[in-house]
Design goal:
Length: about 60
């Protein structure tokens, strides 16, 4: 699994400039893009795992703390 697209949920970024993103795209274990679902769909390929969050929440946990 090289890439994952999460959408349809609460995506918490902790970035003040990012209000209510619709989706998050992860590749090789790193967050690559956060934004609209239409925008991030351009990044997917046949091997991308697509998760419908169905209203659940996703957020980044910083391992460096």
């Amino acid at each position: 699994m090289n890439s994952i697209l999460f959408f349809n949920g609460d995506i918490i970024t902790m970035e003040e400039t990012m209000e209510n993103p619709e989706a998050v795209y992860i590749k090789n274990g790193k967050i690559k893009r956060v934004g609209s679902l239409e925008e991030l769909k351009k990044n997917i390929d046949k091997e991308t795992v697509i998760y419908d969050l169905k209203g659940k929440t996703v957020y980044k946990i910083d391992k460096t703390i």
